[in-house]
Amino acid sequence: MSSHKRLSVGWIAVALIAVASVGCGSSGPELAPVKGVVTLEGEPLEGAVVLFQPNDGGKPATGLTDASGGFVLTTLEEGDGAQVGVNSVSVTKELPSTSSADVEEGEISDVELGTPPRYASPQLSGLTVDVQQGMEPVTLELTWE
Q1: pLDDT tens for residues 30-64?
Q2: By the 8 A CB rule, do 78 and 71 touch?
Q3: 92 belongs to a structural domain
Q4: Residue 54 burial (10 A CB sphere; 0-12, 13-18, 19+)
Q5: Which of 22, 48, 85, 137 is the most exposed place for a label (fewest CB within 10 A)?
Q6: CATH code, 67
Q7: Cα(72)–Cα(82) distance, rounded to whole angstroms?
Q8: Where in the sequence is the domain holding 70, given as residue range(s)?
């Protein structure tokens, strides 16, 4: 094999290793585990969707509250948390449709919320959380007022 061919093969190997190592590193924003509890008027809120939207842009994290109001956030993989930094938060719970006629006819009617409407938008909820590594569980206390 000529020295020119050996040199080309060597550079190709270096390039392949470099490309492979890029895929192994953390290619996204820094995430931190986030768990917490949601209450509405002091009572645990079950079945609500919690959304953390990074203020600096990026993929939102979501979680679903359990019977005790507890949630764990996921961005990319189950339980991996939310993007580090300030996040605007929304909490929504949709109530089941009470109109069987709408369900039978396949119509979509207005969604009835089991949470105050102001909490449905991360930009308007007034809820923010500064996500950091090693943070304590978050408590989100919602009120109808």
Answers
A1: 999 999 999 999 999 999 999 999 999 999 999 99
A2: no
A3: yes
A4: buried
A5: 22
A6: 2.60.40
A7: 10
A8: 31-142
Could you give the 3-state DSSP secondary structure of residue 30?
coil
Q: How crowded is residue 125: how many other Cβ atoms within 10 Å of its Cβ? A: 22
119 touches 142 (CB < 8 A): yes
At 128 the three-state DSSP class reads: strand
pTM score of the predicted model? 0.75
Q: How many domains does the chain have?
A: 1
Amino acid at site 80:
D
Mean pLDDT of 20-33: 66
- pLDDT tens-digit series, residues 78-118: 999 999 999 999 999 999 876 655 555 555 556 789 999 99
Cβ proximity of 61 and 51 under 8 Å? yes
Alpha-carbon distances, residue 120 vs 80, 95, 113 (angstroms): 23, 13, 9
